């Protein structure tokens, strides 16, 4: 069981960390084998053999090999963390709050996986619809967070969806540009630059 500790950090319990480690090992192995053998040459059995688990364990985590390659997609931190970030940026409005939440996710995320995943989708475009579905679900969750934290100022009922769609698009642009570039700049630094432009243009 995870707990939220000071400064808004989410710390999973031991059992959850073990499950996360197994899931990550399955994903990384699937990505590597797909890169080596192609999507048609990738098999669940080969992934399980390398990780040292049964196929039943694999399907406890992923419905298919394609799902293992796509992964879960982005997910917001716990509500308490999201609401705290919005509160810290309340004076600058919901756009600033939504941007800060996404930047927090990038700052605490894993950069190599972003680049690796982007390269995989370039190579296997049939996976793109599944990825877009993951982003659509994430966008809805961000819109709910915006609606929950946008304050009493009168705004159109579509405002949360508009802010979320724009913020998620900015994040996708930053990740795609960074993943295909030759620059040594970190994903976090690059994304901060993109969001600085995003906030100024929408201010």
Automatic annotation (TrEMBL):
<dbReference type="InterPro" id="IPR001647">
    <property type="entry name" value="HTH_TetR"/>
</dbReference>
<dbReference type="Pfam" id="PF00440">
    <property type="entry name" value="TetR_N"/>
</dbReference>
<dbReference type="Pfam" id="PF17754">
    <property type="entry name" value="TetR_C_14"/>
</dbReference>
<feature type="domain" description="HTH tetR-type">
    <location>
        <begin position="20"/>
        <end position="80"/>
    </location>
</feature>
<dbReference type="InterPro" id="IPR050109">
    <property type="entry name" value="HTH-type_TetR-like_transc_reg"/>
</dbReference>
<protein>
    <submittedName>
        <fullName>TetR family transcriptional regulator</fullName>
    </submittedName>
</protein>
<keyword id="KW-0804">Transcription</keyword>
<keyword id="KW-0805">Transcription regulation</keyword>
<dbReference type="InterPro" id="IPR009057">
    <property type="entry name" value="Homeodomain-like_sf"/>
</dbReference>
<keyword id="KW-0238">DNA-binding</keyword>
<dbReference type="InterPro" id="IPR041347">
    <property type="entry name" value="MftR_C"/>
</dbReference>
<feature type="DNA-binding region" description="H-T-H motif">
    <location>
        <begin position="43"/>
        <end position="62"/>
    </location>
</feature>
<dbReference type="InterPro" id="IPR023772">
    <property type="entry name" value="DNA-bd_HTH_TetR-type_CS"/>
</dbReference>
């Amino acid at each position: 069981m995870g707990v939220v500790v000071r400064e808004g950090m989410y710390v999973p319990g031991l059992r959850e960390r073990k499950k996360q480690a197994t899931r990550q090992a399955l994903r990384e192995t699937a990505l590597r084998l797909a890169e080596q053998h192609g999507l048609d040459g990738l098999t669940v059995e080969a992934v399980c053999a390398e990780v040292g688990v049964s196929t039943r364990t694999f399907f406890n985590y992923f419905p298919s090999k394609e799902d293992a390659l796509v992964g879960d997609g982005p997910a917001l931190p716990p509500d308490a963390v999201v609401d705290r970030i919005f509160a810290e940026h309340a004076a600058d409005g919901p756009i600033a709050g939504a941007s800060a939440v996404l930047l927090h996710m990038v700052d605490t995320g894993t950069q190599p996986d972003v680049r690796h995943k982007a390269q995989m989708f370039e190579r296997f475009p049939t996976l793109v619809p599944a990825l877009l579905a993951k982003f659509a679900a994430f966008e809805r969750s961000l819109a709910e967070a915006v609606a929950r934290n946008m304050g009493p100022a009168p705004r159109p009922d579509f405002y949360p969806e508009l802010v979320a769609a724009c913020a998620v698009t900015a994040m996708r642009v930053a990740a795609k540009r960074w993943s295909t570039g030759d620059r040594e700049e970190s994903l976090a630094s690059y994304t901060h630059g993109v969001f600085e432009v995003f906030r100024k243009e929408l201010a």
